[in-house]
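Re: weekly structure request thread

Next one in the queue (288 aa):
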Amino acid sequence: MILSMTGYAVASRELAGGLLSVELRAVNHRFLDLNLRLPEELRQIENLIREKLAGKVSRGKLDCRVGFSARAETQPRLQLNKALLAQLIALAAEAREIAPQAGDLRMGELLRWPGVLATDSVTPEAMQQTALELLDLALADFAATRGREGDKLVASMIERIGKMEAIVAEVQPRLPAIITAYDDKLKQRLQEALGSVDDDRVRQEVALFAQKIDVAEELTRLVAHLGELRRILKAGGAVGKRLDFLMQELHREANTLGSKSVAVETSQASLELKVLIEQMREQVQNIE
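Done, posted below.
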């Protein structure tokens, strides 16, 4: 599958006291540029989150924001751990039997004992676990979004490849006639310019120019590059860099075709090819 570097996904879940959400947003970039924003409660799993993101995304400017929005109308409620409090009171009574001179535990001391009072707000551990679950959900949706966009890019590129192949197929059969017509025109001009110079000299000059204007090799390479382009798009994967290289090669051949052109047909073909290549180059910039 071909993936676009542009994508968006969000996953959220209600927790005690607020909403935890994971948001992914990406645009095209030459390399992987990861920007991660986390609440302090999740700093302990930052490296794990980065590893998960890097394992799913190889290129693009990726922003990942994990946030917890506390509900303003909800205040954490204190809860009394009755079992622990009863245990503390019983232990205090046993201790007084051993040391009668010791004073009783005061209520404030009992309530300050770790675990006696707790809140109904989410714990950091629970928030971390939920954040990782939401990240997996967001990454799955993110991949699906990028895949759908990638399918559209591939379909558009395949359409342009077909147009380019049609242009080359139309020019190739006409090439011998184009070269012959130009040879005749050049031969006539050389004879007029050289006057009494023998025919061998004219034939040598014509043969030299015929080699310079022959674009059969460029057309053959264009066909080969277009075939490779189809193969890469069918294979899928992270192929953006390879496609970018092919765009450069296609443009080189189309440009050479135009520079060697001695007929309207090949000049027009070169122009149309370069327009299609430039359109594909813009699309390739958005492929992972």
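The longest strand covers residues 60-70. Residues 78-119 form one domain.
Next request, please.
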